[in-house]
Each structure stands twice: as C-alpha cells, then as structure tokens.
C-alpha cells in the first residue's frame, strides 16, 4: 500500500512540527509549510521532508502555495490546516483588508483548502482544522464582520477565528463529504509552544510553574491531529465534528447554526477572491 501524502501547515514549530515528526516516523510522505524560511528549512532538513514557505497574512502567498502544491502533488490524502495563533491587543488589518487573526487563522486555510479542492476530492482526503477551546469564549459572532469592526479584543478575535474553524469544518462536511472529503476540527489542549509569543505572551513561561502539570507537550498536543490523520473516517471518527482528546465534544452553540456556517462560507469565498 502506498503511504499517505500528508500536508501540514504551521509545521515549523509547536503542534504542527510534533505532528510532522510523528507522522514521518510512521512512514507517511509528510510535506510541511511554515512562515519562517530559517525555521521551516531546519525542520524539513531534520525530518527529510519537502517544505514550502508562505505567510498567511498575505493571501497572494497562500495562492502561490496552493498552486505549487497542486503542481507538485497529484494526490493529497490529508491536509492539516494548523498554522495560526493568537495576535496582539490592537486590531491590525492585513494588506488584504481583514483582521489579522481572522485571516491567518481562518481565511488562509479556507483559501488553501478551496484551491486544493479538486485534488482533495479526487484523493478522498481528510481535512483537519486545528481549532481551540477558545471558540467557546468568542462572544457573539457576526460572520459578515471579517475586519472585526464591531469591537476588538485579543481573546475575542482569537475565539472568533477558532469558532470559524469549526463553522468551516461543518460547512466543508455538508458541501464536500458527498464528494469524498472527510473533515474534523479539534482542540489540542493547552500546549507549551510559541503560541502568542510574537505578540508579547507565551504558554512557554507557564511550564516552569505549577501550570506545567496542566500544560501539554507539543507531542501530546499533536495526538488528536495524528489520530485523525491515520485512522479511518466514518469508522473511527465522524466527519463534520469537533474533537478533543480523540472524542467528539460539543462546540459553541453558534457552531451548530447551519445558516452561520453557510454565510461564513459565502463571505469567505468573496473575501478570498474565489467567487
Ligand atoms: N498552544 C496551545 O495551547 C494551543 C491551544 C489551542 C489551539 N492552538 C492552535 O494550534 C495551532 C498551532 O499553534 P502552536 O501552539 O503550535 O503555536 P506555535 O508554536 O507558535 O506554531 C505556530 C505555527 O504557525 C505558523 N504561523 C504563525 N503565523 C503564521 C502566518 N502568518 N503565516 C503562516 N504560518 C504562520 C508558525 O510559523 P513560523 O514559526 O514559521 O512563523 C508555526 O509553524 C494554532 O492554530 C493555534 O491556534 C494552540
């Protein structure tokens, strides 16, 4: 049997890197993407895997990544949309005109998935979206407001972007499960990574105090991603659901609103220039 081709975004560090390491060791054809050339190249050389560089705060770079991947891979068995993080206390719009957290954490993965859609359908692929328990604390979401003009807070923006990951998963399932795609969102736990470091906070410092008993290693944080990538959808797990610790978990009630999911899909198509 040929090994699976597994593309993991945000694999230059943290959870994505740990997942790539595990999956490569199990024999998969792992392909990694990162934003930093230096970090991504170093991980790729260590794991002996191909790599691609793309900054998700620039949609043109996501488009370039998508076209390179289409050209280089005729089969993609798993796409893990994992890149992302928590942004700063001030609202910053990207050059594309969207809130930075919404673009990096939601729009970029949405665009990449849609660019790869024909290959993903033909491959009967699994699409895994790294969400977060923070989606529970998003406040009221307005899926029309991709600039977050109606009030901004660091955690609110992060929570909304992670709720969008769940809404995206549900609508991707509704539209493309009949075409062969299986998809799930998951919460990795609270994991000791660079998470938040870029904007003046990090989970890392917590590891030296009592929180070290609560925080996970990146390897443990990657466990549900690795499990979704290597087990059988429809048998071992259910497409369209939100997981934590390999179990279905009920997400924010707003994620169950199918109209919200449909609207977000349509608005994201327009925002990314697909339609
Ligand atoms: N750590 C936690 O406790 C936790 C909890 C819940 C959910 N999550 C989610 O887990 C995912 C991975 O985060 P992590 O904890 O592993 O953090 P991390 O160690 O900071 O890794 C983040 C990864 O995303 C990439 N990335 C960040 N900004 C990017 C951008 N603008 N364009 C392209 N790639 C970008 C980084 O690339 P470079 O390093 O090359 O810049 C890196 O590979 C995120 O989606 C995060 O929201 C984390």
N-to-C span? 38 Å
Query: What is the CATH class designation?
Result: Alpha Beta
Q: Looking across the biggest beta sheet, what order are the strands in?
A: 3-2-1-4-5-6-7-8
Question: Which radius of gyration do the C-alpha atoms yield?
Answer: 17 Å
CATH H-level homologous superfamily name: NAD(P)-binding Rossmann-like Domain
Poorly predicted parts: none
Strand proportion: 5-15%
Could you state the order of secondary-structure elements as H and E?
EHEHEHEHHEHEHHEEH
Number of strands: 8
Number of helices: 9
The hetero molecules present are: NADP nicotinamide-adenine-dinucleotide phosphate
Question: Helix proportion of residues, in percent?
Answer: 25-40%
The geometry reads as: globular
Average pLDDT rating: 94
Notes on the structure:
The chain is α/β, with parallel strands linked by helices and 275 residues long. The N and C termini lie far apart (38 Å). Helix 3 runs parallel beside helix 4, helix 4 packs parallel to helix 6 and helix 6 crosses helix 9. Helix 6 links the parallel strand 5 and strand 6. It has a single domain, classed as Rossmann fold (3-Layer(aba) Sandwich), CATH 3.40.50. Bound molecules: NADP nicotinamide-adenine-dinucleotide phosphate. NADP nicotinamide-adenine-dinucleotide phosphate binds next to helix 1 and helix 2.
């Amino acid at each position: 049997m040929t090994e699976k081709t597994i593309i993991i975004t945000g694999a230059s560090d943290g959870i994505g890197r740990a997942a790539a390491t595990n999956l490569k060791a199990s024999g998969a054809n792992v392909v990694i993407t990162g934003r930093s050339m230096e970090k991504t190249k170093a991980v790729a050389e260590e794991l002996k895997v191909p790599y691609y560089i793309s900054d998700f705060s620039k949609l043109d770079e996501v488009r370039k990544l998508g076209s390179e991947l289409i050209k280089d891979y005729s089969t993609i068995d798993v796409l893990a949309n994992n890149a992302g993080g928590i942004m700063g206390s001030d609202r910053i719009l990207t050059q594309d005109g969207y809130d930075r957290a919404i673009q990096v954490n939601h729009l970029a993965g949405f665009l990449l998935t849609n660019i790869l859609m024909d290959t993903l359908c033909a491959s009967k692929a699994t699409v895994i979206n790294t969400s977060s328990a923070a989606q529970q604390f998003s406040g009221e979401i307005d899926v029309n407001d991709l600039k977050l003009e109606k009030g901004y807070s660091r955690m609110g923006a992060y929570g909304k972007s992670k709720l969008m990951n769940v809404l995206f998963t549900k609508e991707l399932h509704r539209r493309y499960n009949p075409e062969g795609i299986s998809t799930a969102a998951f919460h990795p736990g609270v994991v000791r990574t660079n998470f938040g470091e870029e904007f003046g906070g990090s989970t890392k410092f917590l590891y030296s105090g009592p929180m070290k008993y609560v925080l996970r290693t990146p390897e443990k944080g990657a466990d549900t991603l690795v499990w979704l990538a290597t087990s059988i959808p429809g048998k071992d797990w259910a497409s369209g659901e939100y997981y934590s610790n390999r179990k279905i978990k009920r997400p924010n009630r707003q994620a169950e609103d199918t109209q919200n999911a449909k609207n977000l899909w349509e608005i994201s198509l327009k925002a990314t220039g697909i339609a």
